[in-house]
Amino acid sequence: MSRVLIVGSEGQIGSQLSKELSKEIDFDNLFLSDICDESKSDLKYFRLDALSYDDLKKNILDNDISEVYHLAAILSAKGEKDPMLTWNLNMNSLFNILNLAKEKIIKKVFWPSSIAVFGDHSSKNNTPQFTDKEPITVYGISKLAGENWCKYYNERYGTDVRSLRFPGVISYNTLPGGGTTDYANDIFHSFKSGKNYNCYLKENTILPMIYIDDAINGIVKLMESPKDNLRIKSSYNISGFSTSPKMIAEELKNINKEFKVEYKSDFRQIIADSWPNSIKDKYAREDWDWKENFDLKKTVKEMISKLNIR
Ligand code: AKB
């Protein structure tokens, strides 16, 4: 039985992943950690700075942890405010985990990458696993470097590090912070509170998205797959559906025709324009049976129900 640690458990993906893993893993075998003092969950939690190799190693050894989900990162839009801080956190926390895996202190790692690894020269539609990648954000640069380091450690040191290139994640429980795709979450909260939404992207900006349940299901399926089936040693393309602010707004207007969205793009538009419109996730489908369950309509329906919007 693995003993599992989530690093960055209080964020958008971590808070839902911990709920899901706690269904399968005994209370005593699941540990959460983040940079804040307390957890919102009732699971075992300790404060941890992922940049401290010594603290990470001590906590992992003391608790006999064998599997780590390393989710701590600064996202694309926030990252542009302080590129060096973003590079430092995103890269050096990953190196800490990779080196613990290299030393065989941990046996298995999950680390999320992002569609931010793609750039202006990547193919725009149905973007394949292998294409030109010239990311324009420091977040994207750190994710692309991280992917290559995961591949290097897997091939050179025989580590077992697995990764998914996430599109924008839409979720109801914890809001993302500092991403370019955050609008696809924020819009539901404005809708719920009866306010108009001011969107920072142009109405027809199409980006790939995934509903949180699919994102979690993808992580769990990838981690359960036999290692030998995994041809991609860096990070797998994965996607749910593609949408624009206008398409989400239309779905919400079908529920309440008074709902209004105003569009005034800011610096995040340039980031969004450099990312793919849609993703081809054939390797994930072939290697570990990836299949999304949520399209846009189903996602909107689920968000409305989970956020208790009447
Ligand atoms: C962001 O917008 O920065 C993230 C991502 C696509 O990785 N949601």
Quick rundown:
With 310 residues, the chain is of the alpha/beta class. It has eleven helices and twelve strands. It is globular.
Q: What do these coordinates show?
A:
The protein is an alpha/beta fold and 310 residues long. It has helices spanning 12-24, 53-62, 76-79, 83-102, 138-157, 183-192, 212-224, 245-255, 268-274, 282-288, 296-306; strands at 4-7, 30-34, 44-47, 67-70, 108-114, 161-166, 168-170, 197-199, 207-211, 236-237, 241-243, 261-263. The chain contains eleven helices and twelve strands. The protein has a seven-stranded parallel β-sheet with strand order 3-2-1-4-5-6-10, with helices on both faces. A three-stranded mixed β-sheet has the order 7-9-11. The longest helix has 20 residues, at 83-102. The N and C termini lie far apart (43 Å). 2-amino-3-ketobutyric acid is lined by residues 75-76, 114-116, 139, 166-168, 176, 179-181.
